[in-house]
Design brief:
The complex is a heterodimer of chains A (138) and B (381).
Chain A lengths: L15 H8 L4 E5 L5 E2 L14 E5 L3 E10 L13 E8 L4 E4 L14 E8 L5 E7 L4
Antiparallel strand pairs in A: 1-2, 1-3, 4-5, 4-7, 5-6, 7-8
Chain B lengths: L4 E8 L10 H16 L8 E5 L12 H7 L6 E4 L5 H14 L5 E8 L17 H4 L2 H16 L3 H16 L12 H6 L2 E3 L2 E2 L9 E9 L11 E10 L16 H14 L8 E3 L5 H10 L8 H6 L16 H5 L3 H16 L13 E8 L4 E8 L2
Parallel strand pairs in B: 2-3, 2-4, 9-10
Antiparallel strand pairs in B: 1-7, 1-8, 4-7, 5-6, 8-11, 10-11
Helix pairs in contact in B: 1-2, 3-12, 6-9
The chains are: A mainly beta (138), B alpha/beta (381).
């Protein structure tokens, strides 16, 4: 028998600053220099105005739950032992939506519109995953 | 373009777990039923379109499977793949070939053999979070949950779609899951990705379907009850709608756009449609699609099914065939199978599931995360 490990992100040219910031405990995304649009996922061009000029800005980490599901049938064998688990879309205070995982909250208590805040799950010496928990601070 | 192309024959295999039947055999079965239905010699076919997501084992990323299966060599055969809109898009391409003047008679065939391919496999993305939810049920469930929150809908409403479509499918000898289900059974089934349980999801299915198209002015040569193509539309939107801050998760713009194109070409409105085969990969998808196709206002799709208006005897029967939910969903075959059902209904050959006096039938697919949609409108002669 061999174990199938959970996939971990491999940073590329576009996403490296995102993962590096997460590893330092910061949520950073690109803000377009030309139109001000803050975007997720990271990309070379602004999806709104196609500008390539941007700055990696630090976000507040505050968000609300936009939608979520609870997965009972895992699509990846490495996650079989985790079911049922939630997969959640949060809307960040600054506008973008991102996929994430809600922690410190039972699945049946997740609600659309619920205020959440980012927490950083340090997986190993190189990788940290941004996740969200019910908001404690205001 | 309206009334320039006619369907003169259709064929469809039994859908199901067809482990004993090869991909090529499925193609032959659907095609020869269509040839017989049209009363046509296969030698009269001038071009063919194969709608398939995963071509046969010897076919490669090409249309070769169709050529080999039917020994249709020395004519143009093109493979069409466009997510779950593959079958209807293949049909649309067949229409274009005839309207262009390039061909008089075209074969459109959708075929898929999914059950023995290990189609689930590993997820496409190595992303630690996307990988966790990147399944078809997962993606559609994200939209469904937001929709249900917005309109205050519960899972019982979704279950009504499953009950209706299984009722129709149980009356369809070619359907994959030929059994009726109760609302209670649907609600008590194991959850796949909440809010979807097992019976909110269509099955993984093998099958093939075929349609023979010809120039409308030649159609009389083959049969008097040929079925004219009234309109079609295809629209593509972003493949990553869930990150799009302007996407409300309440329905799919690709469906709205494709429908608008098709209605315009047909010179029709949603009210003129007698019945529709609507993409119901999940119960919620049928509800939102009936809204996006214009059969009711946004948010009213649940009442449409709850009031029985989409049942066989309702004013807008949806999925008289049983839909993807009960008939099954061999990806590339599904759209052509919908054409098959529309043609049979418009010819009054719907048997136990015949809808009353249909004038216009609509077939609709939506594929990917709502990224591509194709709509076909057929009339009776």
């Amino acid at each position: 028998m061999f174990a199938i490990e959970k996939p971990l992100p491999r940073a590329n040219e576009d996403t490296a600053p995102y993962w590096a910031a997460a590893h330092k405990g910061e949520l950073r995304l690109q803000r377009c220099d030309d139109c001000g649009h803050v975007r997720f996922p990271p990309s070379a061009l602004c999806p709104r105005c196609l500008s390539q000029h941007h700055e990696w800005v630090k976000l507040s980490g505050r968000a609300t739950v936009f939608s979520w599901i609870v997965v009972h049938q895992s699509q990846h064998p490495a996650f079989n032992g985790d079911t049922p688990y939630n997969v959640t879309i949060v809307e960040l205070e600054e506008g973008p939506r991102m996929h994430t995982h809600i922690v410190d909250c039972p699945n049946d208590q997740i609600r659309i519109g619920m205020p959440v805040e980012v927490v950083f799950d340090r997986v190993n010496d190189e990788v940290t995953l941004p996740k969200f928990r019910p908001a404690k601070s205001k | 373009m309206k009334d320039q192309v006619a369907v003169i024959g259709v064929g469809c295999t039994k859908f199901g777990d067809l482990f004993e039947t090869s991909y090529e055999e499925l193609i032959c079965e659907a095609a020869f039923e269509a040839f017989a239905d049209a009363g046509i010699d296969p030698a009269e076919i001038q071009a063919a379109y194969l709608g398939t997501y995963m071509p046969g084992p010897s076919g490669g990323k090409a249309a070769v499977s169709l050529g080999d299966a039917l020994r249709l060599y020395d004519i143009p055969i093109t493979r069409v793949e466009n997510y779950c809109a593959t079958g209807t898009d293949a049909f649309r391409n067949g229409c274009l070939a005839i309207e262009s003047g390039a061909c008089d008679v075209v074969l459109v065939l959708g075929a898929e053999k999914l059950k023995d391919r290990g189609g689930r496999g590993l997820p496409r993305f190595g992303h630690p979070l996307l990988a966790k939810g990147n399944s078809a049920p997962g993606l559609f469930a994200l939209a469904a949950n937001r929709y249900m929150h917005t309109f205050g809908m519960g899972r019982e409403m979704l279950a009504k779609v499953a009950v209706k479509n299984h009722y129709n499918g149980a009356r369809n000898p070619k359907a994959h899951l030929r059994m009726e289900v109760t609302e209670e059974k649907v609600l008590k089934a194991p959850i796949i990705a909440s809010p979807f349980g097992l019976f909110d999801c269509c099955p993984t299915t093998d099958g093939a379907a075929a349609a023979i198209l010809c120039r409308a002015d030649l159609a009389k040569r083959f049969r008097s009850d040929y079925i004219p193509v009234k309109g079609y539309g295809l629209a593509v939107t972003t493949g990553r709608p869930f990150f799009d801050p302007t996407f409300d998760y309440l329905g799919f713009r690709s469906t709205q756009m494709a429908a608008r194109q098709a209605y315009k070409m047909a010179g029709a409105t949603p009210r003129d449609i007698s019945f529709a085969e609507v993409h119901d990969c999940f119960t919620w998808t049928e509800i939102s699609n009936t809204e996006d196709l214009g059969f009711c206002e946004k948010g009213q799709g649940g009442s449409l099914v709850a009031e029985g208006r989409t049942s066989l005897s309702g004013d807008i029967p949806i999925n008289p065939s049983g839909g993807l939910k009960s008939f099954g969903h061999p990806i590339g075959a599904s759209g052509v199978r919908m054409i098959y059902e529309c043609v049979k209904q418009l010819q009054g050959q719907g048997g136990e599931r015949q809808v009353k006096n249909p004038k216009l039938g609509l077939a609709h697919n939506v594929g990917g995360p709502g990224a591509v949609s194709c709509v076909i409108i057929l009339g009776n002669n």
